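Dear all,

This email documents one entry for the complex benchmark we are building for the journal club exercise. For each entry we list the sequence lines for every component of the assembly. Then comes the predicted three-dimensional structure of the complex as a token string, followed by one or two observations. Please use this as the template for your own entries, and keep the labels exactly as they appear.
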Amino acid sequence: MVIEDTLFVLWLMLAGPLWAAVGLFVLPFVNHGRSEKDQLPTTSLKVGGVIGGFALGPVGVGLFYFEPTLIRRTTLTLGVVLTVFVSAQVLARVVEPDFPSVLWLLLAGPLWAALAGYFIPRHYRELEADDQDVLTTAALGGFAIGPLIFGLMWKTTPKVNRDWIITLGALGAWQIYALFAIQNPTNPCVALPFSATYLTQQTANGIVIGCIYSLMAVGLTLIYSVQGVVSFAHGQLYMVGGYFSFYFLLHAGNVLSNLTNTEVTVNPIWGIPVAAIIVFLMGAVFERIFLKPMHEGLIERVSEYAILITFGFGFFLEYTTLAIAGPFPQKTSRFIEIRRFTLDRAFIGDEFFFGPIHIIGDRAFAMVIGILLIFALLYFLQRTWTGRALRATSQDRQAAAVTGINPTNMNTLSFALGSMLAAMSGAALIPIFNWVPWVGAEMVGRSYVIVVLGGLGSVPGALAGGIIVGIVEALGAGCHPDPSRGAAYKEAFALVIFALVLLLKPTGLFGREPN
Amino acid sequence: MKRITFFMSIAALLAMITLLPFSAVQADGHCEFAEDSIKIGGLVPLSAPGAVFGGVAMSWTANRAADDINADCGVEIDGVNYQVEIVIGDSEGSPERGQAVVERFILEDEVHAVTGVYHSAVGLATMGMLDENGIPTVFSEPWNDNVSANGIMEYDGRPPRNADGVDYVFRVSPASSMVGGVVVDWLIDLGVGNVVIIAENTDYGQPAAADESARFEAAGATVTQINVELGTEDFVPILSRVQASAETPDVIRILVTGETSFNLTQQMAELGIAPTEDTICVTNQFAFQSEQYWENVPDGNYCAFNRVGIIPSLFSDTAVELNAAYFEEFEDIVPSFAMATYDAVWILADAIERAGTYSDGEAIVAAIETTDLDLSQGRYYFEFGNHNPDLPEGTPAFMWHQWPDPVVTMMQYFEQGQSSLEAAVIFPEVYQTHGTGYIVPGTSP
């Protein structure tokens, strides 16, 4: 074995077999001090320890030790991902290209998904069995195992849960990847040894941009969850956030330069709180003047009014900005002077290698900002009185009012907070993308997809939705057999997932069932 | 309070009544104008998804040309001076919207001629309407070859515009093939063999990419084409794919316009794909707007770009004057499409004056065909038209009603933050300013 670079050594130190062994011995200690009925199966703990240590090193071992409830799903997911990748690689090398697609279409695939999705939930309802998640499970099952799903679900009508969905979904994903690998063995997402690096690179691209998407979507979902209003001005609030940051940095830089007689560039991170404060106030004022009457019964057609007034507000912001700032693209200086982070290529033997992986420095920084802000928001919503009041209002306005919460103030706060998050997202992205008055249009379209995908009103859903959209777009653009079309259809890949989720789980991944 | 407002209104009304006759017939002290004015429609993109800053620049130079013409007592027809009035319409870069604006120009504004048009798709969608309604038109920026070729050749099921003996459409911007030829010749001279073309999915990007691909392939190079949507912000997944290619490309050619090209070029540089020692970066002509380029593409040093229009060191007096005024307004160098729009208004005004009519489109077209004017971009004339209808064999059809002399050069920045006036002209050899055909990243000429 020849180790030519640091990456492999790094992995051995941070994860790999050593940590798998540590996990194997350490995890069973989880049961110490637990009563007999609370103890977890030792085998599960050992398997979890091995997989967690091998894949994630001390992070995996620590995570499973302190949160043993995560073991089952995490190991299942890690195991499925590895199995999909390895077995598809094997299949691609032993199976003829044309045969399996036909076979798969006959034995499983979309037709069986439609049949199972249509008949099985009806059968459950006829028998008055619990049909929660049955549609999703049946459709995924039909897709993955064809008529066998009828055998599994028809006779005994078992109660399905998320494990069913994960397993069948993973099996379906495995089949798609395997078929793809067989049909297109030279694709960069399939051809070894390169595909391991390439898939990691594209997934990393997707996660980085996905976290940034999430930040904007979180604001939208917050407004919807409390007010029941979809803000059509969200993209423009994101845009003005960027501009407020830009002009603040410009003027602050000019003032400091005059004081010091040297050119001073202010780091764009200072623009984020400035944009946040201004847009928070703007959102609050707008809500008080234009949305409050809606909640006070002064407006006859509430839904139409909400759409039109926020749409109009967005229009006003966009064209006012165009008049003031002009159409020329703007950009601030960088957050950090590191152009990109690169994990160098590591060789294992003469042929197998992993890396290099590149992440653009400013994007990584913006991702960290996005994650921190989302966690700060979650903390605010979960741990503070005001946050809990917001959640209470979103769940039941009248009950919240009875307990002393002022729903009118909560409405204002939610709109101001949501607007502020959009603005912070804009201020975090102006060092990355060129800023023009219509920059919000593309982003807001994606945000609607994310919030519906994650579940309208769910903050964790928006985070998950953003990351899913990011990864799907990156893998879609990166793996499409025709590179030219892959790039052009980038946004469409996320819409396909969006349509599927709406079809199978209309409440979104984390959405609440309607009362 | 009410009384004061009332008296102020009366005073304003009296002032208007007093000044009205002067404004109708007299623009300034030395020229007397007719009540009617000559209306020229300026079809430019002023909203997304069009290239808005292109539209703003074009609109500004069109109005500037009208001001200059009017300061020179406008257009004289039969001893009467007419003011030139520019009626701006926002195409939004969309063919449907462009058609709606042209309809408004014809039916409501009753324009006598049209200029502008940034996007090829808009040019292709509106040229038939303009021709059918007999509106003399000088397009100043669409590059698609068929914009002029459709004068004598069928395009997309549409018969040649000149089938009835008059073609109302002219063009003073280059055809895609005229630009592509220079870029490809330069790169083939440099010996590139593996080319990646990233092209926008529009009526400009796709034909331009097809034309350049054909030229590269004819020269023995291999071409990979990647299409992207205009307005895309995040190109990293696409660029990662380029980065993952088994063979490092010799050149990445960007056929994407507007701020989208800035995003693409910057992300390409951030990922370390191009410009590098191995890979040449050829970006869009917008790079010539150095202020904007460096603000948005701070890592784009050593990128080459095609420049349409005369190089700054060869600017005529008219161009110097226009550039100075433009710089005062926008703090940047006047782009070629804005210069072309300025010149197009002058060409139309000159033709109307020579034709002796602003309402007889056919006479104006005949006058445009015989244009011979020195303006900001050089000497304007149209080699082929009904005055000289036979194109010699081997002459492409797009030369019909086409200004044949737009200068196309390749330029390259070699210092970060450099003004485009200081950038090196690297091709054709006759215009080279630094004695080299390419500056390798990390070196100085």
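Observations: The longest strand of chain A covers residues 340-343. The CA atoms of residues 280 and 416 of chain A lie 5 Å apart.
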